[in-house]
Amino acid sequence: MDLRLGPGSQRTTLSHRRGEKGGALWSRAGTPGAPSRLRVEMNDLISGGSIVNAEAVWDHVTMADRELAFKAGDVIKVLDASNKDWWWGQIDEEEGWFPASFVRYLSVLSFSLSKVEPHPPQPQTKQVFYLNPIATPRFQNTTSKLWVNQEDGGGEPSEGTSEVQNGHLDPTNDCLCLGSPLQNRDQMRANVINEIMSTERHYIKHLKDICEGYLRQCRKRVDMFNDDQLKVIFGNIEDIYRFQMGFVRDLEKQYNTDDPHLSEIGPCFLEHQDGFWIYSEYCNNHLDACMELSKLMRDGRYQHFFEACRLLQQMIDIAIDGFLLTPVQKICKYPLQLAELLKYTALEHSDYRYVAAALAVMRNVTQQINERKRRLENIDKIAQWQASVLDWEGDDILDRSSELIYTGELSWIYQPYGRSQQRVFFLFDHQLVLCKKDLIRRDILYYKGRIDMDRYDVRDATDGRDDDFNVSVKNAFKLCNKDSEEIHIFLAKKPEEKNRWLRAFHEERKMVQEDEKIGFEISEYQKRQAAMTVRKVTKQKGVNRCTPPSYPPPQDPLSAGQYEVSEDMAQGEVFEFSQSKRGQAPFWQNFSRLAPFRK
Length: 599
Fold this sequence. Notes:
The protein is of the alpha+beta class.
């Protein structure tokens, strides 16, 4: 059998002949989503028992259970390629959907070959052909020539049949690798630029389909959707659509059609860097959108409605939750695209420093979005913790805070009393919560108040006599009210513990500033969901208060120990923690093991 890769006009062609005991398939670099004819051939091979593999060129980060996550360079076994945009594949034992655009080229095709007669018997092997996605440019005429005679595998290659240009044969695994790193760097950069522009145009089309095909139709059906439901399902997708249209418009201005490698798109990312933060709200809301859609889809009316919207807009055959996942995938894809672009941008290129800066910016954006997503996933734990605290007063923690930054025991002195009190402190963003342990059940906490961190400054206190309280202190720091003379002083057990608290207060202010910059907040829907979770847990427990969860300790968790300071200690004495003889694990480690307390 001959696998012939010869010169072509605009694309490489393959002349192949199917025998009784083998098969061959040719694939070229393609746009996101394989051509329909190629997909038909792939499915024919798959149904015929052949193995078709694809190589990932970008990481696929996903939060959906039915999707297949992978990293760039992974080899994916394609099990179904009937859809233009989404394929079903397998890595090891995991199966799931993955976007065809993330395997920009069909890079690995393999199929089983039986023994070839009349040559001596040979072990059955799998012949794998690697088509390097980078070394075979999409927009370049391919003129390499390759002949592989599979019917004469044991003989000497005939003249002209072993010529391989831009490739080499890997004898260790019977693989033929087409393409080498010798391609011109400008051509490589042009390929990446073209790919970025192509994916941006496809992405704009997806956003338009969501806004006009789904959201607009949903607003017309007031009998099926209310405003709150639409806000949960679609989030700020319209804001993202408007932002992306402006972003792509500027990209098109910088795109050099004749010489793509000369395009300077780095400045576009820098000019629009603040706009990418709107993805944070969408990503944070995405899980709630999936939950709301899942509820609606239990009713057949909604299934038929969304399917009718898809058909009316002439959208591809993907469920609505697949379309709504697109912005989440897109924001994760930008750092990967920019990293690839930087790889093929010469140092002397005018766009190099802009691309490098853009890569740093987009990595920071995705990192912060992931961090805020993690915080929202923990709000149920915060709500459950609050429910476990007795005698709670005032607003809920989630009304202002979303993250437990640090916790520990400190001795607290407050004007005008000037007497020390031992309390357990929980530092959240915006507030410091004070609790007291039960005298008998040390795992039980009573609410004793809170301090608004937005109104206070943190100041270090030197060891020695303090002028404000007229006492000698050690390992102390202060919280001073910005609008009055109110002062709180806190004493730690060791200098290291004091420094951890000071770092935690600094981190709290930094977090608040970043949240204000991007407009991060917990939606009312998310608060209600957290409250419902608490009520559900409480009902399942069958007690008046839910059992405290096993709350994970924040950074620099305190070492186990009881810190006791007598409240009758004279003011002239030095306030300093001493290690208790009987050690005790931190309270959050014992939450799940202790029996619930009935008030």
